[in-house]
């Protein structure tokens, strides 16, 4: 049997833990029509892509849904029209309705029918046909960024919603990328859409996975799961290293720490301001997590500390309870202490 755990980002590993409640929330909302858009966010390695794949697989199994994935690196509107047309049954329906999409390089030219010259009009016509067939469309976009292609797509998506056409959208992204997109002047409707921050993985489900696959005791499996703090990538890395090394989990912690640092933490750290790093260092230095002690070390008043705390919570780097703040990621406190240096000048 091959190693069921994976170090590779962006693919669904053989062994993973589903977020059942959050998954069901999204699925029910789309099916019932109570929400047409979900934005899924979380820190790097939190399992956003796998979560979205879980959602896509549910709707791929339903005959009344069409699922299409798009990338922000290409023309998303033309890409959507092209993928809809490439579906055998839909393509036949579009041809029967005499949709001439030849100007976009889609399908063939239809004699005596003027080609549609505007991609927005083309999508309105295509989705109207889906609606008549009793079908709904789910568009999935992984790792959104605030670029021209994504802004254009979001603007047209809003129009299609207003036209009561059967389109739904799920997109994943880092907090700062989704926040940038929401703050675009013409995309304020995104602020009203639910932003789903992924919960930590279930400790019991993780420990059962370790117990079953690694043949460790229930007690050791629980300790391993607790070490990950429910962080998806740590769950994979710890399982992968334990499978390969065949040693007790505490013997492989240095290797796990190195994987986390080189694959995730270095990148997270590079994207933080030095003030954010300073706040994280103070939190790492105060294992009790008391905000009063953290602010004292930083020399910050509550109103000065609050914006940094909120931003780091949204980024998924700290968790907050009344009067307390602690780091969320496993072994991240050691990484912060080892990598922080006071900015000069």
Could you please describe the fold and organization of this structure?
- The protein is an alpha/beta fold.
- It has three domains: 20-197, Rossmann fold (3-Layer(aba) Sandwich); 203-253, no CATH class; 272-339, Winged helix-like DNA-binding domain superfamily/Winged helix DNA-binding domain (Arc Repressor Mutant, subunit A).
- The chain contains 15 helices and seven strands.
- A five-stranded parallel β-sheet has the order 2-3-4-1-5, with helices on both faces. The chain has a two-stranded antiparallel sheet with strand order 6-7.
- Helix 10 runs antiparallel to helix 11 and helix 12 crosses helix 13 (291-298).
- The longest helix has 18 residues, at 253-270.
- It starts with 19 loop residues before the first helix and ends in a 6-residue tail after the last helix.
- The model has no long low-confidence stretch (mean pLDDT 92).
